[in-house]
Every structure is written in C-alpha cells, then in structure tokens.
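Anyone? Bumping this.
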Amino acid sequence: MFRAEADVLSSHRILRALSFAALAVTVLVGCVVNETRPLPKLEAVQAKQQIAEAELLDVAVQAFDANIPEAIKDNEEALDKRRIYPDVRKAESRLLANRLKTTLETSGQWGAVRVVPEGVRFVDILVSGKILESTGGRLELEVRAVDSVGRIWIDDKIYAGDADLGSYKTDAAMRARDPFKNVYVQIADDLLEARERLTTIDRRDIRQVAALRFAEDLDPRSFGGYLVRDKDGFIKVSRLPASGDPALERVEKIRERDAVVIDTLDGYNEQFSEGLSDPYASYRRTSREAIEKEDKARAQATTRTVLGAAAVLASIFVSSQCSGSDYNCQRIEDAVRYGGGIGGVAAVMSGIKKFEDAKTAAQEVKELARSFENEAGSQIVEFEGRSLKLVGTAEEQYREWRRLLAAIYAEETGVAPAAPRISPAGS
Amino acid sequence: MTAKDIALISLMLPFALAGCGTIPSTDGGSTSTSGRSAGGIIMGGGTSRDTSRDLTNDTSTGGDTRSDRKGSSSDGNDSSSAEPTTADERSGTLSKTLDDSLGEFDKTLEEEQQRTAAERDARAANRTATASTQDSAGGIGRREGDLRSERPGQSGSGGNPDTSGDRQDRGVVAGGGSGAPDRSIPSGEDDDIVARRLRRAAEQETDPELKEKLWKEYMEYKRNVQGRG
C-alpha cells in the first residue's frame, strides 16, 4: 500500500517536471513575440501668435551624415549584418533631413527652414544630424544644433523611436504621417525649448550676428571689427554698421542671392524627396515586415534549439527517480525520457528550420534594400550633379563679388588693409 | 596759278582731306560714333567692365583684386577714351559691374527655378496620370512605388517614369544603350570649379554604376561649357 503511494508520488513528480518544462517552453516562445502597442501621435508645439520678424529665426538643416562606418564600408557582409545599405543611407541623409524640415516648418515657430548642403555656415540656426540606425522598424538619430553666435542648442543628443505601425497600414496613412514623426517632433520641441530659454535680445543678436558674419566673410575689409568673441567664446556684436551704409547695401544684395541659392538647393531636395517618397515609404513598410519576420524567426530558432537540446540532454542524463523494483515508475519514466528525447530532437529540428527562415527573411530585407537603391541611385546622381553645379557656380560668383567688393573698398577708402579676423573681446 | 595747277590741286584735295581724316582717329580727337563724350561717366555695359578690369588691376594691393573676367564683352577700342579718373567714378563703375553681375546671376537662378518648377509640374502630371491609369485598371495590384513590383528583371513597365523623363530631358543617359562609359574622358586641365567637383566626385565614387553616371554628368557639363564657349 505504502509502496503504491510512493509510485504514484514519483510519477506525479515526473509529470510535474514535464509540465514545468512545457510551460517554460511556452513562456520562452511567448517572450519573443513582440507586443505591438499603438504609439502616441505627437505633434510639434504650434506657434500661437505671430513672431516678430526680428526674432523669427531661420533654420538650416544640413543633409544628415549617412554614417557608413569607415572600417566596414567595403565589406558588404558586415554592412548587411548591421542593415546598413550605403545608397539607401545616402538617400536617407536627404530624405530624413527633409522630414525634420517639414516638421519644423509646419510648427510655424521658425522663419525659413531649409535643407542645405554641407558648407552653408552663416545661418541663424544650423541643425546637423547623424543616422545611427534607420530601418523600417526603428530610427535613431544623433542631432546637434548651433546658432550663429556659437551657442549649442542641442548637443549631439540621440533621438530614437520605433515605427508607428498605424502609418504603414495604407498608402494614404503613409503619406499622411511619417512612421517616425514622433522622433522629428521631439527634435522640434527641443529646438523650441532652447529658443524659449533665450531673451528677445538674444534672438535678435542671433540674426544680426548671422548677417554680419556673412558680411564679414564676403567683405572683410568693410565689416571687420563689428563682431567680437566674449570670454565664453560666443560671437557678439560690438557695433553695427550705419543704416544706409553702401557697403551694407551691397552685401545685403548678395545675401538676397545667397538666400535664393539656398532656396533653389532646397527646391532640388524637395523634388528629390517627393520623387522618392512613395518608393521609400514602401521600402520601409516591406522591410519592416521582413525584419520583424527575421528577428522573430531568429529568436524562435534560438529558443527552440536551446530548449530542444536541453530536453534531449535531460532525457539522457537525468538520473532515475524510481527504485529498482518499481516497474510502474520505471515505465512512466522511460516513456517520459523517450517523449522528452523525441520532443527535444523535434524542437532542435524546428529551431534549425527557423534559422533557415531567418536567413530567408534577411535575404529579403537585403533584396528590398537593393531594389530601393536601384531606384534611388539615378536620382541621387542627378540630385548631386545639379546641386554641385549650382553650388560651384555660386562659389565662383562669390569669389568674383569678393574681388569687386575689395576693389570698391579700396576705391572708397584709398587703402586696402589685410583682412581682419574676429578678435577676442577686449583685445 | 595756271589752269593746270588748279586742276592738280583739285585732284589732290580729296586725298589731302582723306589723309586729314585719319589723323584724329589716332590721337583721340575725333568724335566717336558711340556718342560718348571723353571723360564722361561710363554706363555702357561692355566698356564699364573693361574699365573695371583696369581699375581692379590698379587697386590690387593685397593680391585680392584681379581682373574682371566674367562677362566682359566690350569692344575695347573705346575704353581708353572713357576711363574714369576719380575714385568716385571708379567706385561707381565697380558698383555697376557688381550690379550687372548680380543681374546675370539672377537670370541663372531664375532659369534654374523655372526648370525646377517645370519638372515638378511634369512630375505631378505624371503622377496623376499614373494614378488614373491604375484606377482604370481595376485598382487592385501594385501600390504606387511598390518595390516588390519594381525589382529588376520583373515587369517591363517597372522603374520610375518620372526619373526616366527627367533624365531624358537632361540627356544624361540618352540612348539607353549598354551604358558603357564614354572612353574619351577629357584631361581636365581646363576644368572650371564645377567640372572639377564633378570630376572629383566621379573619381572618388566606388560604386561602378554611380561612377559611370558621374562621369557622364561630367562630360555632359564639359560639352555644354565648350558649346557655350
């Protein structure tokens, strides 16, 4: 009687252990399924009142740094592993900058917001960014914003976010809202917060300093000495040119052209972004699905392989819980071991199959990227070609104007002194 | 004075007068056909540029001021007779040159903006046409810009019609042949800044396809420049 009870107890122990194992498998598999929660739909803080012209700051968003690591830039396999596709990144450097620009523009908080090429310096606020990660599922940017005075508004801060899956639902939804709009909104709000910390005078100074820096760069002889650096290294206006100063009028005329050049370059970028908008949105949507499939398959593969192997090992090496004469217990134990072994092998096989699935999904991600690269490649070349031509023409023109301004200065003053530099305050 | 002498004098007189007519042209005493009075303020486009060249050369003390090469289309002969003499005049001339240069640059920018606007309109029209075609085809099928439908090797109508249109306009890959790069890449000795940038971009590009396209862009630019010249 006592023995029979013991048999039942040990059988129960084995069954309980099996149940725990099954539960553990279920839990572990369950853990790798991503929960998709709807993200809040953030909007940039909108301007509620008209901002005075003198305080309305222009923002130049530089094309983002594509951030293709130098060490692996020629290693396709390593790049694929990190989901970095150079031509996709090249296109994204403009496309993402353009998304940020749109967010800033629609907030109504800023003056002219433009996407500019590298090299544009004399603007009120210059925003630059680096793409740390960009897939259909996640975006991570490192952003820096500096004003003309030299004050850092955003100091290489990292902005990251997952895609809002609602934006991927339909084509109309994709056009209506970028899946990573929340990331751009955070940047826009931080810029606004930084601006709000400044006084009215600070904001006016930013505009004046930007204008005088431009003037000084173009006509250093006439505009040297108007700017100084304070003890913190910020540029300050030490004095202002007289209103109606012909030199100022000449430089202002050139600055107007400079603004048109920037507008035109921004127009190119706008056109480029419009042209790739649908293909890029589609690429992000399909690649996100493929990436999710890959990640899920990889996680399942790992779990199944590990647990399967553990079950096989357990069925072989776990010592017997039954006494030598307890045949019932031994029968049950054998059945459990057999079942565990078979189940373990099946789990390992399933894990291997999942690894294959993950590889297929990874290949799909890569193919999608290549497909987008094919589409974007020609447009990148055209965009870069046109931008280079215009920038080149403008630079040549500026050189010419610098020479003329220097000659005019010499005629008007009778002297042609060496170009002054911005000097530290008090020196 | 005999009748013979009178006849001789009357024969020589036209030659003598013609000879007198050539003298003023060499010493600047004649009234010029341009109607500009000697020593007046020069407002003429071409001549003012030539004058500014002389002035900029004169005033280049620090090596910054050089001759005004851009757009100087003067006839040259008049400049010596109309050089501004005072600093104010020279300054005015330079300001005028600057204004002219700004005007020319405005034209370039305007053309570029018009071109961009036209392309944008064409793109929008194309997009509308594509959308209506898709609608009339039943609505189901490809999404606009669906990458899956535009992989190379699939679907003859794949690719971006907008892009091909733009590129045909620009003549970048006209012909659509094998796309083999033109072998006759110029030496680059006479490259201006734009050409130098394009050339450098082409040289540094590692992707063979993009490299080839950059070279084409470079050569197209060179052809255009030479055509203008």
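Late reply, but here is one note on the structure posted above: The CA atoms of residues 313 and 380 of chain A lie 56 Å apart.
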